[in-house]
Specification:
This protein has 713 residues and is mainly alpha-helical. 71% of the residues lie in helices and 0% in strands. It is built from 29 helices and no strands. It has helices at residues 6-28, 37-63, 72-75, 87-98, 102-110, 115-142, 149-156, 159-188, 192-215, 220-242, 254-270, 277-302, 313-317, 327-335, 342-348, 362-386, 389-396, 399-402, 406-415, 422-431, 444-459, 464-499, 511-534, 540-543, 547-568, 576-598, 606-618, 629-669, 696-712. Helix 11 (254-270) packs antiparallel against helix 23 (511-534). The chain is globular and about 70 Å long. The chain starts with 5 loop residues before the first helix and ends with a helix.
Length: 713
């Protein structure tokens, strides 16, 4: 067993002191200016300690990852879905796949409660819940030939709870994909710069995949340099295109974008994973991480002050204009993916376990990628917290609350205690070349304003508009990579479900099956997206209000499956690692579900909202956001559907948790009755490092492996 040397002890002591200093300032400062750099210090120090110690403890002590054991990618390699993928490329794919809209917009909306609640949950939540879930699901799926979360639940918990898990996970996945696609459409509509730049990532990714597979296998550094150079060229060229005569060609209507997105989702789902999906996600990761890293550096250099209070009055009273509800439970639901996300468990039991080279890489890819996503969420919260609070609320409050003029918006926002003049609101829009920033809800525009604020402090105010539009395009790229991987994972889930009825579907690379299920998944989320684009209150817009709760309910399913597998595999004493996050998530999410269904506040409760709008219809009145009596009827329908679906999903999750508890209790009492569906051990012939940087021992082992191969030739 290795012992720490003096240098290591000193280094980790300094890291701990930096994190402690950051937390102390954030917790104790009241009434004085606080630099956003303290948020960055608290986060990075905490992440480093968690990855080095807690994640390592779970991987090697609890899970006992085995570097000598062949993974599904090695044993079942078919070049379509199962393919051993370089750890650097796979880390990029996994991060790009899990990092969708949530970490960008959720923390921005949660800033309504102040910067402190969100900061605590983003950092503490990811360390003890989100990253743990991702890593443990990835481990157990890898041990089961990359089976989906729902199928693992069916096999390990039982047909009753498993059927509930299969139904809940697939339904939630379709909702999540529809919401992600809608955000992409809204970001790219009438944006030739974004459309061109993002479109160019597809041929670049195809080139990278061909390069690694055929031209120069294993040359990841070479293809990375080529890909990054071409990506930067595409970004610069995108602005040229937007200012040229070609702009009209790449200025697409929302309905046209829907068709392209559905077509792209289908192609990305059926093509071999090495051709498009993995290299494109890897390429996108450079832009994602590069932008976030530059934001962190910009915060450290510019030292912008946090203008949002640590805790706002809206957190105490639950009457905020951005979203209704109290701090508990809704700040946790709103932040979602930045701390804990059920969507991640689908990726961790979808594409990634079919591509990972070694079990020892699970810590870096499962836990590490989630820490990367949490850092994105933190920077989004920073961006929302450094802009003027008056501007923040003017951007994120609906027009029904603040009106459509800067004069009216200024008066309403000032009444909430956050003064901003009409001239300041007009100037803020002019600074980023926008006609108006009022009621730019959804979080993305606010994040773009915050990003432009940070970067312009370093590069100069004249580039503020450039950075704003760059951030809008960046957000679309960020989200699109979760859409293509999510579609492929949805295909895996549907294949697992159908495989219980018709055996050939169990082979996820069976071409008729993969084509049929890909088409079904794309048709489902494509339908909701198409209707949502054409009807402001219909389609996926109808399901948008249950996005956050659905995602967190899915996390409860994943943690219940993980806890059950820990118990059944002889790790009962370590079941608290996922059991405690499960208890917390179930408490938070089921409380939120109860309030969304039964609350007497029409801004919170779906059925109460239905009642209010139905009464207004009976009285012949039109209430916002409806603009006509037809809209009023649509709101009534939407509220009813959302309330019923919320109740059904909550019941399904309760069934899964209860059945999982039953299985755990039975195993503790009578272990002989339990069966574990783990794939038998097969020795691995692959040599690959566990982390990004190989250790000396790993370099020597790789060298010996190369010499052995050459001697065999």
């Amino acid at each position: 067993m290795r012992t720490a040397n003096v240098r290591t002890i000193v280094a980790w002591t300094l890291v701990a002191l930096v994190a402690a200093a950051g937390w102390s300032v954030l917790a104790l400062a009241r009434g004085e200016n606080v630099s956003a750099a303290w948020m960055v210090a608290a986060a990075l120090g905490s992440y480093a300690i968690a990855y080095r110690f807690y994640a390592r403890f779970i991987a090697y002590k609890v899970l006992k990852v085995d570097g000598t054991r062949a993974t599904p990618a090695e044993r079942l390699d078919n070049g379509i879905d199962f393919h051993p993928t370089d750890r650097r490329v796979l880390l990029g794919h996994h991060f790009a796949a899990i990092a969708g809209a949530g970490p960008l917009v959720g923390p921005v909306l949660a800033a309504q409660m102040g910067y402190l609640p969100g900061t605590i949950w983003i950092i503490v939540g990811v360390i003890f819940a989100g990253a743990v879930q991702d890593m443990v699901v990835l481990f157990f799926s890898t041990r089961r030939d990359g089976k989906s979360l729902g199928q693992m639940a069916r096999e390990e918990i039982g047909p009753f709870g498993g059927a509930a898990a299969l139904l809940a996970t697939f339904a939630i996945m379709i909702i999540l994909l529809g919401v992600l696609a809608l955000v992409v459409v809204n970001a790219l509509a009438s944006s030739p710069w974004g459309t061109f730049s993002i479109g160019m990532t597809i041929p670049i990714a195809l080139l990278m995949g061909f390069y690694l597979r055929v031209l120069r296998p294993g040359r990841v550094s070479e293809v990375s340099l080529i890909g990054v150079a071409l990506l930067l060229l595409a970004l610069v060229a995108g602005r040229w295109v937007a200012e040229s005569s070609w702009a009209g060609t790449f200025t697409l209507a929302p309905s046209t974008l829907v068709i392209w997105l559905v077509g792209y989702g289908f192609v990305a789902s059926v093509l071999p994973v090495w051709t498009l999906l993995a290299p494109r996600d890897y390429l996108s990761t450079f832009m994602k991480i590069g932008t976030i890293a530059l934001l962190a550096i910009g915060v450290v250099v510019a030292l912008p002050a946090l203008k949002m209070p640590a805790v706002t009055d809206f957190a105490k009273h639950g009457n905020g204009p951005v979203f209704a509800g109290s701090l508990f439970p809704f700040v946790f639901i709103t932040i979602a993916c930045g701390a804990l996300s059920g969507f991640h468990s689908l990726i961790s039991s979808g594409t990634t376990p079919k591509m990972i080279q070694k079990e020892t890489q699970i810590r870096m890819i499962g836990y590490g990628a989630m820490l990367m996503e949490s850092s994105v969420a933190l920077m989004a919260l920073v961006a929302a917290s450094i802009i003027d609070p008056g501007l923040y609320f003017a951007m994120n409050a609906p027009s029904g609350a603040i009106g459509t003029t800067v004069q009216n918006a200024s008066q309403v926002v000032s009444g909430w205690g956050y003064h901003i003049s009409p001239a300041d609101l007009a100037q803020a829009a002019k600074n980023v070349d926008e006609a108006s920033l009022l009621s730019r809800t959804g979080g993305a525009p606010t994040l773009a304003v915050g990003v432009s604020e940070i970067f312009s402090k370093v590069t100069g105010g004249s580039l503020r508009a450039f950075w704003y539009h760059f951030a809008i395009m960046f957000e679309a790229l960020f989200i699109l990579t979760a859409l293509d991987a999510g579609t492929r994972v949805g295909r895996f889930m549907l294949q697992d479900m159908l495989g219980n009825v018709y055996r050939p579907f169990r082979n996820v690379s069976w071409k008729p099956g993969l084509a049929l299920t890909s088409a079904i998944v794309c048709a489902l989320w494509g339908y909701f997206l198409w209707v949502g684009v054409h009807e402001p209150l219909g389609g996926i817009n109808q399901l948008f209000p249950i996005f956050g709760i659905s995602n967190q309910l899915l996390a409860a399913v994943a943690l219940a499956v993980c806890t059950t597998l820990l118990v059944k595999s002889g790790r009962l004493k370590w079941a608290w690692i996922t059991g405690i996050p499960l208890a917390w998530d179930a408490t938070v999410t089921l409380t939120a579900s109860w309030q969304k269904v039964f609350s007497s506040d029409p801004r919170v409760g779906f059925f109460e909202q239905r009642s209010v709008f139905q009464d207004a219809i009976d009285a012949g009145k039109v209430l916002p956001p409806a603009k006509s009596m037809d809209d009023m009827h649509t709101v009534v329908t939407n509220s009813t559907v959302d309330g019923v679906i919320s109740a059904i999903l909550a019941v399904l999750v309760v069934v899964v948790i209860a059945d999982a508890l039953r299985v755990c209790v039975r195993h503790v009492r009578r272990p002989a009755l339990s069966t574990l569906r783990e794939t038998p051990y097969v020795e691995s012939n692959i040599t690959a490092p566990a982390g990004l940087i190989p250790t000396r021992e790993e370099k020597e082992a790789t060298a010996r492996d190369v010499v052995g191969v050459q001697a065999g030739d």
